[in-house]
């Protein structure tokens, strides 16, 4: 049975334009990781889970998929991927303002029976985003060509209740994408059924990676370069110019392991 019922959904649609619809099923032998493996072929899938107090497993695990919107920050520009279209615009030094404007289009209505989180913008802010908030020295060369920030807004969410051993399959109905409440509700229910059918399929097994005698890592700095950075930090400390120094180097190695298996 879908929740909320359509009569309640129609009433919720008077209060906002984003209403989560869900169906609850038994988790059986599924785990968050086994479901993640079934969904990993999709773009922009994420898994959120946590440990409370350092030792107690969090009650909920969340898997998001079907990204309706992807928000990226790259240099002075914001890149939006939405419904197969890509738009690029300037953020004028305020990328989070652009994010705030994007999120302003949504007026979510909480559905009884769901945890507080039932979708939203999930992603990361890269370290260099701090340069939009503080005046800092010039950034080091970008040799990885990574986005400074990436957030996805997923239309579908799978919520594991690790206490009750159930799964809530959630589809967020965005009223602006539908002609009528009936249309929005029907599309959400169909999306839920498609997801449940996918969960019922046997999970694929990753081929074991070839065994090696050892793994070697390569740094992005030579030992002499790193020592020079340490000496410069010591000079700053002696001069009283810094209160904290983070000296880091990047170590890389080729990896053929399935990302989910690595997790």
Describe this structure in words.
With 263 residues, the protein is α+β, with helices and mostly antiparallel strands. It has 2 domains: 195 residues, Anthranilate synthase (4-Layer Sandwich), CATH 3.60.120.10; 45 residues, no CATH class. It contains 6 helices and 12 strands. A hairpin with a 4-residue loop joins strand 9 and strand 10. It is globular, with a radius of gyration of 23 Å. The model has no long low-confidence stretch (mean pLDDT 91).
Structural topology:
Elements: H1 6-12, E1 18-26, H2 32-39, E2 46-48, E3 51-52, E4 56-57, E5 60-74, E6 77-82, E7 85-90, H3 95-103, E8 121-125, E9 149-161, E10 166-174, H4 181-200, E11 218-219, H5 223-238, E12 251-252, H6 259-262
Antiparallel strand pairs: 1-10, 2-5, 3-4, 5-6, 5-9, 6-7, 8-9, 9-10, 11-12
């Amino acid at each position: 049975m879908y929740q909320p019922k359509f009569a309640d959904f129609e009433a919720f649609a008077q209060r906002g334009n984003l209403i989560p619809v869900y169906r609850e099923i038994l988790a059986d032998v599924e785990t968050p990781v086994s479901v993640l493996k079934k969904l990993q072929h999709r773009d922009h899938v994420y898994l959120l889970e946590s440990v409370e107090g350092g030792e107690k497993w969090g009650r909920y695990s969340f898997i998001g998929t079907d990204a309706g919107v992807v928000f990226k920050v790259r240099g002075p520009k914001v890149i939006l991927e939405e419904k197969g279209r890509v738009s690029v615009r300037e953020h004028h030094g305020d990328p989070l303002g652009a994010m705030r404007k994007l999120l302003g289009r949504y007026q979510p209505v909480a559905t009884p029976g769901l945890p507080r989180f039932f979708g939203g913008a999930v992603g990361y802010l890269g370290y260099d985003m701090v340069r939009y908030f503080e005046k800092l020295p010039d950034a080091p060369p970008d040799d990885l060509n990574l986005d400074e920030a990436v957030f996805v807004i997923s239309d579908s969410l799978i919520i594991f209740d690790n206490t009750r051993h159930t799964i809530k399959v959630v589809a967020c109905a965005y009223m602006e994408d539908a002609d009528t409440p009936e249309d929005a509700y029907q599309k959400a229910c169909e999306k839920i059924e498609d997801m449940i059918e996918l969960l019922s399929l046997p999970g694929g097994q990753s081929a074991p990676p070839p065994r090696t005698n050892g793994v070697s890592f390569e740094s992005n700095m030579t030992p002499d370069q790193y020592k020079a950075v340490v000496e410069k930090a010591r000079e700053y400390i002696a001069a009283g110019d810094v209160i904290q120094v983070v000296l880091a180097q990047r170590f890389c190695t080729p990896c053929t392991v399935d990302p989910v298996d690595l997790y």
